[in-house]
């Protein structure tokens, strides 16, 4: 992507990112590519947000399944029996009528997603 000279200083780019602005939007404002913005952030040792986190309504511990525990094994088994992942909408769903089980799983995963 050929662009002209950057219209923002590196510290301005860092500040905008740390205030929650997306790299694509910063790139547009600075008249550079998103790749250049990422290079500036890396060069300034800026802690990066999870991919797609800017677009999430609800929180969840994305690292929950990295450490084995009895609860993690239970949730994986529960998901294998009653769960589904929609690739189109990137949603994880459970078919379960017992609301208390779903509340326990939600709490264990550190999520604030409402149950429907």
Sequence of secondary-structure elements: HHHHEEH
Q: What spatial order of strands do you see in the largest sheet?
A: 1-2
How many angstroms does the end-to-end distance come to?
44 Å
Helix/strand/pairing category: mainly alpha
Rough outline: elongated
Q: Strand percentage, roughly?
A: 5-15%
Low-pLDDT windows of residues: none
How is the biggest beta sheet arranged? Answer: 2 strands, antiparallel
| CA-atom Rg in angstroms | 20 Å
Mean pLDDT, to the nearest integer, reads 87
Helix content: 40-55%
Pfam families: LAGLIDADG_3
Keywords: Endonuclease, Hydrolase, Nuclease
GO molecular function, one term: endonuclease activity
Domain Homing endonuclease LAGLIDADG: 72-107
Descriptive report:
- It is a single chain.
- This protein is mainly alpha-helical and 116 residues long.
- The chain is 43% helix and 7% strand.
- It is built from five helices and two strands; from the N terminus they run H-H-H-H-E-E-H.
- The chain has helices at residues 10-18, 23-30, 34-43, 70-82, 99-108; strands spanning 83-86, 91-94.
- Strands 1-2 form a two-stranded antiparallel sheet.
- Helix 2 (23-30) crosses helix 3.
- The chain is elongated and about 60 Å long.
- Keywords: Endonuclease, Hydrolase, Nuclease.
- This is LAGLIDADG family homing endonuclease.
- GO terms for molecular function: endonuclease activity.
- It holds the Pfam family LAGLIDADG_3.
